[in-house]
Design a protein that fits this description.
The protein is mainly alpha-helical. The chain folds into 3 domains: about 35-230, no CATH class; about 240-425, no CATH class; about 435-655, no CATH class. Helices cover about 60% and strands about 0% of the residues. It has 28 helices and 2 strands. The radius of gyration is 31 Å and the shape is globular. Pfam families: DUF4209. This is Endoplasmic reticulum membrane-associated RNA degradation protein-like isoform X1.
Length: about 650
């Protein structure tokens, strides 16, 4: 174990020695060289906003509207005197003088806080923190303005800035100025290089923050001249991470003593680049001072930087640790977590392990997860609403990752807190993978159908003739045997399934944990079908329960007319039929769930037959949802449909066998 650690540590250490900056030559030239000048150019109005004609004077000519690297280098150099003057003025003017024309953003408090951060000389991370927040919330504010002209906001900032609508509202020169700062990849691209964790604290200047604030105020002035008040601008609703508390409970609470241990781990791990350590110190400071929003804003880009460092070491591609040039893609989470790198297996899986990757995918990538970095970086969440438990979770994940690259001889890995963190990370089960969600929803559906038997019912004197739709006409045992044959279920499991009631089915499901990492596309298609089926069953279960309870209380109060009594009778007769039918459906879903990791190995023709079976079940549940609705009450048809489905499953099972 020690030898394995030494090999990994040395590999990471070599990257540390070679990487004094995560900025490529082109980006570093734009950020740290091209924009450095001793010249000043006053582009201000008397209200310290940017004047369009003055901005036009400094901007280079854009031929045919085509951006090139040469044009952006020239543009950054020519606007530098403007940045100098903005910095000179904004670093000295009173706080009250900057208060005007920010209301249009709907985030005035956030922008004023950034102004304070830019003037904070005590922390080396204040400027990058202010820029992280400014780029995110300016993007959000511009998207809101765009909604005045169209119904959809582009997902990417560079596409948002390229819209003609924004150019027509704010002026071409103003938007062009903003595109130089954070437009396409060949621009200064402040937003991306910050949020993807490429910029060290010393590599960015407060000039970049002050110019963004000046642009915000200039846009506010422009909107006022157009007669657009803040209340006229749409404000998209905020997203919330409060619901994450229901699944974030695996890690220990971080106390002051834990933070001291974490700080030591951050210093000693080889997973972090030395020039980035000030950020990690600031993360702990923000957490200690309960500034959870700021803590998460700094932490997330640094997690990506840390993982990129591990990625390049594991795959021996040191060139990928820096920002990409215009002709290449950044090495971001998408590639870090991918199964393959240039058609070779991504070795980060061997270094981190599956549970650590699942932790990160749950937090950052899965569509139905919180996708914390995406939502923060696009300004979709109020920083003041970031909950403590979420930041505690993310910080513990960071500690767990860094612990993998700390020498065991230091003794710090023997701390109780560290052992608890490693245990939690090593035993984590994915929560937001589609299969994980299917499992929860299926358990929910089973429990809801089980509760039908607890609904109050009454004996009626005039039950309808249910004919062939009674529960006796459905041989569940035979159908379950047919399903087992269809999927070639082994004999021991088959015995359990044949005698499996709802509770046993639920218990069996709880013990199942199918593989979820790097699964084939076809598994996703099957999982989607199963989830759709289960979603309809949940609605059906609720509608039947509501019908049983409502009708019962109407009967008790003697509020039923004769027709309603007949409907109630049909409902009571249909419940056993639906129960047995859904038992077979649940069993089919369970077997699919158990075998989902094998389904992709089936022949295409067999996959087609399986899809046909599941689509038939889906159609059945869709129809049930319609017919069990309180406005329909078509209970006899529900029974007929149930019988038809079960006959189809029986016939289908006799004709097919998925596993020969």
């Amino acid at each position: 174990m020690m030898e394995e650690w030494k090999e990994t540590e040395c590999s990471l250490e070599r990257k540390h020695i070679a990487c004094t900056s995560c900025l490529s030559a082109y980006v570093k030239k734009l950020l740290c060289e091209a924009c450095i000048t001793n010249q000043f150019f006053d582009a201000f109005t008397s209200y310290y906003t940017l004047e369009q004609n003055h901005m036009k004077m400094v901007l280079p000519t854009l031929n045919d509207g085509d951006f090139t690297e040469v044009w952006f280098q020239d543009a950054v150099h020519k606007i530098s005197p403007v940045l100098n003057h903005v910095h000179f003025v904004y670093s000295q003017i009173p706080f009250c003088d900057i208060d005007m024309w920010i209301e249009w953003t709907h985030y005035k408090k956030v922008f004023l806080e950034c102004f304070k951060l830019l003037r904070d000389s005590e922390s080396s991370c204040s400027v990058p923190l202010a820029l992280l927040i400014l780029t995110a919330y300016l993007e959000r504010a511009l998207g809101n303005v765009l909604l005045l002209k169209q119904n959809q906001v582009p997902a990417m900032l560079k596409d948002l800035l390229a819209t003609e609508e924004l150019k027509n509202i704010f002026g071409h020169e103003s938007i062009l100025f903003l595109q130089i700062l954070m437009g396409p990849p060949i621009s200064l691209n402040l937003r991306n290089i910050l949020w993807h964790g490429f910029v060290a604290p010393s590599e960015v200047s407060s000039r970049h923050g002050y110019i963004l604030l000046a642009i915000v105020r200039s846009f506010g002035e422009k909107l006022e001249k157009l007669g657009l008040k803040p209340e006229h601008i749409p404000c998209r609703s905020w997203l919330s991470f409060q619901q994450t508390e229901t699944w974030i409970n695996c890690f220990p609470e971080i106390t002051d003593s834990c933070m001291r241990i974490a700080e030591e781990i951050f210093r000693k791990t080889t997973a972090l680049l030395p020039q980035m350590l000030p950020y990690w110190k600031e993360v702990l400071s923000c957490f200690r001072n309960q500034k959870y929003g700021q803590c998460l804003v700094i932490l997330l880009p640094q997690i990506e930087n840390c993982l990129r460092n591990i990625f390049v070491a594991a795959n021996d591609c040191p060139e990928r640790i820096v920002t990409a040039e215009a002709t290449m893609l950044y090495t971001t989470f998408d590639e870090i977590f991918s199964e393959f790198v240039h058609e070779k297996t991504n070795k980060i899986r061997n270094v981190l392990g599956d549970t650590y990757i699942e932790l990160l995918l749950d937090l950052l990538v899965y569509p139905e997860g919180p996708r914390v970095r995406d939502r923060l970086s696009h300004g979709e969440v109020l920083l003041e609403d970031i909950p403590h438990h979420l930041v505690n979770h993310v910080l513990n994940i960071s500690v767990a990752i860094c612990c993998k690259f700390v020498c065991p001889s230091t003794g710090i890995l023997q701390e109780i807190y560290v052992k608890d963190v490693i245990t939690a990370a090593s035993t984590y089960k994915p929560h937001f993978h589609p299969l994980s969600i299917l499992k929860r929803k299926l358990l929910q559906a089973i429990n809801k159908v089980m509760k039908w038997k607890d609904c109050p019912i009454t004996d009626l004197n005039d039950p309808p003739d249910s004919g062939e739709t009674t529960d006796k006409s459905i041989d569940v045992t035979h159908l379950i045997q047919a399903i087992c044959k269809l999927y070639n279920v082994d004999n021991d499991l088959k015995k359990n399934l044949v005698h499996c009631d709802f509770q046993m089915l639920s218990n069996m499901l709880k013990k199942l944990h199918p593989e979820t990492l790097y699964r084939p596309k076809y598994e996703g298609e099957i999982t989607t079908l199963l989830r759709q089926i289960v979603s309809h069953i949940i609605i059906v279960a609720d509608q039947v329960s509501d019908g049983l309870q409502t009708r019962y209380y109407q009967w008790c109060k003697k509020e039923m007319r004769s027709r309603q009594r007949l409907t109630y009778s049909r409902l009571l007769c249909s419940v056993p039929v639906l129960t047995r039918s859904l038992q077979v459906v649940f069993m089919t879903i369970l077997v699919n769930f158990m075998y989902v990791n094998k389904l992709s190995s089936l022949e295409k023709k067999t996959q087609h037959h399986l899809t046909r079976l599941l689509k038939s079940i889906l159609k059945y549940t869709e129809n049930l949802e319609i017919m069990t609705n309180a406005t329909k009450n078509r209970w006899e048809e529900c029974c007929c449909l149930s019988k038809e489905l079960l006959e189809f499953i029986s016939y289908f099972s006799q004709k097919q066998s998925f596993y020969k």
